[in-house]
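note to self — DONT lose this again. spent like an hour looking for the file last time. sequence + predicted structure for the chain T wanted, 215 res
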Amino acid sequence: MARYHSKTTVLQNDWDQVASAVWQRYPNPHSKHVLSEDVISRKIEDNKLHSFRLLTKTNHLPKWGERFLPTGTPKFASIVEESVVDPVAKTFTTFTWNLNFTRIMHVREKVVYSVSPENNDWTQIHREAWVSSGMYGFIRAIQHFGVDRYKKNAEKANMGLRLVLDKLFNKGQEVATEQKPVEKKGLLKEKAKVAKEAAIQVAQQKAQQKQGTLM
């Protein structure tokens, strides 16, 4: 059984601003682990924007986690992001899950950006995550680690989104966003390129399978 976590956050920006910022949230100083983002497919159906994207991220494992991987395994996580934007209902929903390392830890996330019930000029972010593992004998420990890491990453995601919102919409405020190319990150991107291309093929197949089931 997967371990579940949820949290709701409120941003004092309207939904249109937040929806725009979500598409532009990378890069930012709190997302240096995100190496690339690629659109696999995009379509408009029933006045809703459906997108299927692949994100490549660094995947730093603790020492105890490295024992479960073969020597030389690239430590890059390929993340699928499926999203639906409904401009009428004013909801922006994303579903994400990892394509690799799923036997060790599989993380599924659902995030809904909607108008806050407290104030129509604010936006509510409701995050849910399910962490599971197939490593018998270590499942509870890995799930505990996964939820703890998810909480920290979710907070960084909120911080990064706030930073992008400040840059885009909060006039008169100077926001420090160091986005100069870093040599080390450039090397990581090169190393992740092959893994990303393979993951794109898998993501495209999944997107085609999903479209086929909807026909």
